[in-house]
Structure formats: C-alpha cells, structure tokens
Amino acid sequence: IPTLALIKMDIQIERTKDHEEISKLNESVQTLHHKLYPEDFKEFDLSSVTHFFKKILISDDSYAFLAKVNSEPVGYILCMLKIGKENEFQYEKKVLYIDQISINDEFRKLGIGKMLMNKAFELAKDLQVSEIQLDHWVSNDDASKFFKQLGFGYYNYKMKKQLKG
Predict the structure, then answer these.
(1) Which residues pair with 84 in a beta bridge?
(2) Helix spans in the chain (H)
(3) Distance separating alpha carbons of residues 165 and 163, to the nearest angstrom
(4) Which tens digits make up the pLDDT trace of 33-68?
(5) CA distance linking residue 27 with residue 8, whole number of Å
(6) What is the distance between the alpha carbons of residues 143 and 30, in angstroms, rounded to a whole number?
C-alpha cells in the first residue's frame, strides 16, 4: 500500500459479537494452519467455523474485537477470560487468554495487529487481570517476533512425539 494511501486510511477497532464477520476473516489463518499442519488442521469450512464462533461469542467470558479499514473488516482478535480454580498445587489464577489474532495479508505491517493487542491490554486492565497468555506454532516466526516485541516471553514449552502406526 503506497504511503499516500496510508494517510487516507481510517482504522477503527471495535468490540463485536458478529460471528459471521469473524468467521470470514478466519479463513486465512485456518488455511495457513492447514497448509503447515495438515495432519492436525482441517481445511477451512465457512459453515462449521461460523457455528464455532456463534457458540463461542455467546459466552460472557469471550471478547472479540474487529479491525476495520475504511469500514472494511480486515482483522480480529479473540480473547477469553479464564479462571483457574485454586487446588492443592496452585493458587487461583485469572488470565486473559488470546485465542486468535488475524490480519488479512494486505493489511499487515500497518500497526493493526498492535492496535488489536492494545485492545486486549485495555480489556485485561478493565477485567482486573494482571496476566495475558497466548500461544503460537513453533514454525510461525512472524508471530514469535511480533509477540516478543510486545513484551511477551515464554513460560512453558509443549512437546510431542509422533508415534508410528
């Protein structure tokens, strides 16, 4: 996008429960996940993804924000409030979990992802949550770099071993 076009952009971030709009925006990230990990991720199917987001966004503990450029939806972030109950090993813990963030390819590197993350930071403050958690796939170097620039650090590593047959 040329610099002159950036000047004329009106970028807005708004809270949404619009499961249909979020579902459409999910196509690029679901397609990427399927391409990278076809044994784990299904091909994008708008109907089933729409059903998923409709169910998720009903919850009072789910928060979605939509990024629009000149009124056109171009990205979203999906956050969930999670409360781990106290048990014999751990204290109760309340965190805001970032389940998904996606920006359409042609609108990346414009600060929209950072704007969406800032909405998550504001939400955490409003919910009186002192910790935000998220995860990303090992091969997603762009996500790793992006989250590290925002101050995130690793605290837990998951491992797996693929068994034959």
Answers:
(1) 93
(2) 3-7, 19-25, 27-36, 46-58, 112-126, 141-149
(3) 7
(4) 999 889 999 999 999 999 999 999 999 999 999 999
(5) 27
(6) 15
